[in-house]
Design a protein that fits this description.
The longest helix is centred in the middle third of the chain and has 18 residues. Helix 3 packs across helix 6. The chain is built from 14 helices and 18 strands. The strands form five sheets. Strands 7-2-8-1-10-9 form a six-stranded mixed beta sheet, sandwiched between helices. The chain is α+β, with helices and mostly antiparallel strands.
Length: about 475
């Protein structure tokens, strides 16, 4: 069946373009390789028009600026690489249809001003950087939309209007949401440093990884401000464009080498994602697993059956791409079904950790096998594990007992119990017996930060025990 929808989240640091960054571009290799994968999906989709929302076009406080020109051009001369240029046809007919659909929905839009539209280098780097990977040859007509400072809901409704306009004209349109995450991840970052910037990026990755675009509009405003981000409105607009479709998310990369977070993700029907990218996907469960010295589950060690299954699954998948058909566990003391976390360390450092708080598969064996693949290849904090790393991996499996509600901190013991902290749609989990987490107050505070829950907000608490296998 023909793929009928495609959305892409794309970072846009000029330094990742080899002609700009030279040797420094290697620091964003994971993002560049992820955009190459997104290009493969775009090639398969074969759009008639690509719509790009950029945070760096001419922006208005009370309206969206949309290009309606016959021809679009730009280059990265401002970054020392004029040879990186992009010249493509526009799509005035689709632009007019978007204006009409937006007006019907009560969304103010304007054509890009004439003095901007006619200037050399019209396309900004928020468009040029992604397209230098996604459409190097300028094969597809495009429209650029600048974000505005209207409310988030206006951005979501504009995304819907783009899709309605495309449907009215019978256009196959791919939507590229250009934007970076926090700009304040490290000391010396471009916009300064905030200790909460990493929390914003973790929240953003979690929401996009679960396809929860509505949740993007409800991130704590102070957290958004402290992050110094530039992509949130683009991502919310993409959510409106995808609304009501069968597109599902696939996170391809996340990194922050210079104190700015770069996230790459694609949204398409699951069969199309698997056809181009192979099996994987699902919501990453971020867990904090600090270095606790030597880890169990080393290659060749005498390990438990759950760890042996996790290792065999990871090695087979990384080497061949094969997924176990019917994984099995023979230990009768293990539960038939349960949530499980698979953690991977390399030379004492975390290399991947993903899990599920409750059973999502028919058997515990299937749960472990699935999460092992996700931990090895789908944790957006790390690049996928390669075959050359397999012998150095240390693997652990935590099998979770069912959570139980509790009334207060006095019912917690961070050595014995993990905790789940919930507030409305936000939910954070912390495993038990972690180094540096010595009190129930610490445990709840960390789990709350992971979920984007501010101090003082009312929360619901659940505790759970785990069986730790090494």
């Amino acid at each position: 069946m023909e793929m009928d929808v495609l959305g892409i989240v794309a970072p846009h640091p000029p330094i990742m373009v080899p002609e700009v960054g030279a040797a420094d571009a290697d620091a964003t290799r994971a993002s560049a390789e992820a955009l190459d994968l997104a290009r493969d999906l775009l090639d398969r989709f074969a759009p008639e028009t690509v719509v790009v929302m950029s945070p760096h076009g001419p922006a208005f406080r009370d309206a969206f600026a949309i290009t309606d020109a016959e021809r679009l051009h730009g280059d990265l001369g401002a970054f020392g690489a004029p040879q990186v240029s992009h010249t493509v046809p526009g799509d005035p007919a689709l632009a007019r249809a978007i204006f009409a659909a937006a007006a019907k929905a009560g969304i103010p839009t304007v054509p890009r001003p004439d003095d901007v539209r006619s200037a050399a280098g019209e396309l900004d780097h928020g468009v040029l950087v992604p397209l230098s990977f996604l459409d190097r040859d300028g094969r597809w007509p495009m429209i650029e939309i600048s974000l505005s400072y209207l409310p988030y809901d206006s951005h979501r409704r504009l995304g819907r209007a783009v899709r309605e306009a495309a449907a009215a004209l019978g256009r196959r349109v791919a939507f590229v949401a250009s934007g970076d995450c926090s700009h304040r991840l490290k000391q010396g970052a471009p916009a300064g440093y905030s200790p909460r910037a990493a929390l914003f990026d973790e929240r953003l990755v979690h929401l996009l990884g679960s396809g929860d675009f509505d949740g993007l509009s409800h991130i704590e405003p102070r957290l958004v401000e402290e992050a110094g981000e530039c992509g949130l409105r683009s991502f919310i607009t993409l959510g409106g464009f995808l609304e009501g479709t069968d597109a599902v998310p696939r996170l391809l990369a996340y990194e922050g080498p210079w104190g700015v977070g770069y996230l790459t993700a694609v949204f398409a029907p699951s069969k199309e994602l698997e056809a181009v990218l192979g099996p994987a996907g699902g919501l990453p469960e971020h867990s904090s697993t600090p270095d606790r010295g030597a880890k169990g589950g080393s290659k060749g060690a005498d390990v438990s059956e759950p760890v042996r299954l996790a290792r065999e699954t990871i090695e087979r998948y990384v080497r061949t791409g094969a997924v176990p058909d019917s994984p099995m566990l023979t230990d009768a003391t293990l539960p038939q079904r349960a949530g499980a976390f698979v953690s991977i360390h390399q030379h004492g450092d975390l290399r991947g950790c993903i899990g599920t708080t409750g059973p999502t598969r028919d058997t515990l064996a299937e749960e472990i096998a699935y999460n092992a693949i996700q931990a090895a290849t789908g944790d957006p904090r790390f690049p996928p594990i390669t075959a050359g790393e397999l012998d150095a991996l240390e693997i652990g499996v935590d099998v979770l007992h069912d959570p139980e509600p509790i009334e207060g901190l006095d019912e917690l013991d961070p050595r014995r119990y993990g905790v789940i902290v919930s507030c409305d749609w936000r939910r954070g989990l912390l495993l038990p017996d972690l180094e540096g987490v010595d009190t129930a107050q610490d445990q709840v505070a960390i789990a709350s930060r992971k979920a984007g829950i501010a101090p003082g907000e009312p929360v619901r608490l659940e505790r759970f025990r785990v069986d730790r296998h090494a």
